Amino acid sequence: MMKWLMVATIVGCTVIADLLQSAEMKRNVIAVADLKPGRVGGVLSDLARRVPLILAVFCMAISFFAFMKLLSIADLSFAVPVTAASVVLETVLAWLLLKEKVSAMRWAGAICVACGVVLLAV
Length: 122
Prior knowledge:
Elements: H1 2-27, H2 40-48, H3 51-73, H4 76-82, H5 85-96, H6 104-121
Helix pairs in contact: 1-3, 1-5, 5-6
């Protein structure tokens, strides 16, 4: 039971973090010129005020610590592949929420990942 709770936590937090990060970075693009040494402090200061990015980092941290816990109770050969379920959810949610165009090849890849996760869960 604990194993599947950790998997759900990892997948859920990873998906939320990636969606928040992607949406925020698409909304507020950082120009290459802003990455010059004299401007890095200002860029970091700006990033620190973006609530969605802060939430994304928080979710990534939760996912990391849940993964550490999962590794203490499950084999690596189970933990890494089964948490790939996030790929499937991210593909669906990127299409639905972010209005991204998902090619047939990407859908096929997501379906293959989903089948692999199901095989691991059995």
